[in-house]
Every structure is written in structure tokens, then in C-alpha cells.
Specification:
This protein is mainly beta. The strands form 4 sheets. Strands 7-8-9-10-15-14-13-12 form an 8-stranded antiparallel β-sheet, covered by helices on one side. A hairpin with a 4-residue loop joins strand 4 and strand 5.
Length: about 200
């Protein structure tokens, strides 16, 4: 099952979705050569994404030749995140009643890619995460998912449109892309609140 978000973005959505880069990445340019889907059973799909790294005009290095460490997540202020981010940082203008910005974490990937994760907490210990990562060049994402535990639908919120995943435990995850940046909003919040948050960006 393939779900596309904008040009060339492959989203194969999961009951336990996790969007991340490998702890190490080879070379400097990030390119994806293939995505392999394997049907594990009648309801479960596993997806493997392979990244190849290539500097313009050069032959891609062989497997295991050289590696570049990806930076660790660092807690920063919102102003520090703005200064460090290689793209204009987006901050929700609307928050559900009782929610405040709790933490901001910055992670430098393979240059010039950077990931910023904001955690917002409510008065009743509820929270949601808002993540943004730029995607210069080609990009794809792969996931494993259970067809029985999730529902997937398109959404439109203001000028943004993407995919909304709803899990059996009523938590949600939304993906969209705008001007070369992938955005993810996830948490156990009502769909209506999520739409308002996204519309405010």
C-alpha cells in the first residue's frame, strides 16, 4: 500500500510510526535508491528504505567505505532553534486551551538537513509533538504498519494538505510537506484541534 504526500514523498504508514534517519549516514548527499515492501502476513506490511549517498559528479562510495555521524538531539530555546535551522522555522500560532510549549530539540542530520521537534504539554499531562525536517533533493520514508490497527485519510487544513493516520488508541499522526520541509504532528489530541493547529501555521 503506497500513500504519496506531494512530489516523490512515499509514506507507508504504521501503527508504531517512527520517522528518523539512521544513526550514521554515509557521505554528504542523501539519495534513495529503492524501497522494498514485504507482506509479512495478511494484515502486516514491512517496508525497507535504502539510502545511497552521492556527491555531485562522483561515483557513490561502496557500502561501508566512510561514515558521517549524525548529531544528537539537543535541547535548545526556540530562538536558538530559529538561528540554527537551515530553513524558516514554523511555530503554531494556535494551541488548544491549556497547552504550552514545553521543550524544543534540535538535531543536525547530514548537512544541510536539520530536524526540530517541539513538545507541547497540556494541563492534564496530555501532549503532542510537532516535528519539521527539511528535505533537499530526493526523499522518501518507509514504515511498517498493521492494516487492522490504523485508518488513513487525506486532510486539508488551510494551505496544507497531507495524510492523517488514526490509531486504535485514538492517537493521531499527520504528515504534510510544504516548500521542501516535511512536517509531522502527533499525539492523543482531537482531530479538530490538530486541524486548527495546522491551519494556524
Amino acid at each position: 500500500m503506497r500513500l504519496a504526500i506531494a512530489a516523490g514523498i512515499m509514506l507507508l504508514l504504521a501503527g508504531t510510526i517512527s520517522v528518523s534517519f539512521p544513526t550514521k549516514a554515509r557521505a554528504l548527499g542523501v539519495k534513495i535508491v529503492n524501497i522494498v515492501e514485504t507482506l509479512l502476513s495478511g494484515t502486516q506490511m514491512n517496508v525497507r528504505t535504502e539510502y545511497k549517498h552521492n556527491e555531485p559528479g562522483q561515483t557513490p562510495p561502496g557500502e561501508g567505505i566512510r561514515e558521517v555521524d549524525i548529531g544528537q538531539k539537543i535541547a535548545v530555546s526556540i530562538d536558538e532553534a530559529r538561528l540554527a535551522s537551515p530553513y524558516p522555522l514554523v511555530i503554531p500560532e494556535y494551541l488548544p486551551p491549556g497547552f504550552i510549549l514545553d521543550t524544543v530539540k534540535f538535531q543536525e542530520m547530514v548537512k544541510p538537513i536539520a530536524k526540530v521537534t517541539m513538545r507541547f504539554t497540556g494541563s492534564d499531562a496530555s501532549y503532542f509533538l510537532f516535528t519539521q525536517v527539511n528535505t533537499p533533493g530526493e526523499y522518501a520514508q518507509g514504515y511498517g504498519y498493521d492494516l487492522e490497527d490504523t485508518t488513513v485519510e487525506d486532510f486539508i487544513a488551510g494551505e496544507n494538505n497531507g495524510k492523517l493516520v488514526t490509531f486504535k488508541n485514538n492517537s493521531i499522526k499527520l504528515f504534510w510537506i510544504k516548500q521542501g520541509v516535511i512536517y509531522t504532528l502527533e499525539g492523543a489530541i482531537p482531530k479538530e484541534d490538530a486541524m486548527k493547529i495546522i491551519e494556524s501555521m
